[in-house]
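Support request, please re-run this one:
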Amino acid sequence: MTNSYDVVIIGAGPGGYNAAIRAGQLGLKVAIIEKRDAKKLGGTCLNVGCIPSKALLHASELYETAEKNFEGLGINTGKLSLDLDQMLKQKDDAVDGLTKGVAFLMKKNKVETFFGAGEIIAPGKVRVTGDTPAELQAKNIIIATGSEVTPLPGVEIDETQIVSSTGALSFPSVPKHLVVIGAGVIGLELGSVWRRLGAKVTVIEFLDRVLPTMDAEVSKQFQRMLKKQGVIFKLSSKVTGAEKLKTKVKLTVEPAAGGSAEAIDADAVLVAIGRRPHTDGLGLANVGVETDKRGFIVTDHFKTNVPGVWALGDCITGPMLAHKAEDDGTACVELIAGKAGHVNYDTVPSVVYTWPEVACVGKTEEQLKEAGIAYKTGKFPFAANSRAKTNHETDGFVKILADAETDRVLGCHIVGVGAGELIAEAVSVMEFGGSSEDIARTCHAHPTRSEAVRQAAMGVEGWTMQA
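Re-run finished. Output below.
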């Protein structure tokens, strides 16, 4: 069976399904291909990433709050107990509801869905093998296949004792000792979940700090907060081997700079050292699509070196974030339709959904110093924010970086409860080329945590009023 389309999209994650929706809105005939076994759309994010992890983060936060903080608020609940099966079920229910929502949006926007593996077999031709086999003719092919877990040599993932982020979403019981390899976003988020539920958590990181891509001051203070919560850190360390025994895993750990090895016993191990582009089996070589030495598809405004073949999201360079992929998908299709699609990667925010949250957008102090850009800094602690004090949630701060001459906001970094929501204000101001004074002169509701953003902006010019 051969069908002809304006656009065929391989991959139904946030980049792919948003590209499909926008294509449908613009009147293009579009098909989307998804090879996930469960015939569920939404990609890694909806099925085994952003959404299920947030469901567990939220539930585990409530559990720990009830366990440790309710009594001080005058709430007596009696004996607390964990029903892990129900906690995992509500996570799965959230995923199921949202994936069904994506399927509905495909139908609403007249997107034809094919379940199976998509392979480019020739210019303008995609073969689908799987549940709905077909050969599709396409004026434009969009590769939106996302990313996969980066493996660690000597540590074989079996999704039982040694797991990726996928296995860490479904432990049948709380591990007594969970070792997390990698102190990035995924490792810290999932490590936080199981620590709150009762696990001893040890995080091993090759570099000398957590969240190594973020602002150094944020990284330092955030690590201190997690350590206070009970997370154990072994920084500047590397795992060189893992021996699976009947009921535990014995890890071999060495200093990153070299030295004597030590053995660490764990009930479960989470490998979270990063992700890599997923492009195997796509037939890139069949048409000569270029990739770089790290496996990313080389693009210029989403165009590959092959006419009519486009790529976006995690399989091209840039932040590996669902919302970045969403914007990529929209912009890519708009370019195909002859519109002015564009993504400003300088204003893509990043959020760590721990407690408290960490959020950032734009440049770090280290990047500004390296580039030789003169800047001013404004900081404000949540300990001086009335809403945070009232809610007993005073950990963290807001930091705003602005150009020393023009006052244009160059970066914003937040550690604190609700940081992921608060960062949106800074993103908006930066998108419009705004200044720290624009934030400082804007009225913010009282009492809210957002006032801390305003006070930090005031601090850029030295007139913070509430600390």
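The longest strand covers residues 134-143. The two ends are 69 Å apart (CA to CA).
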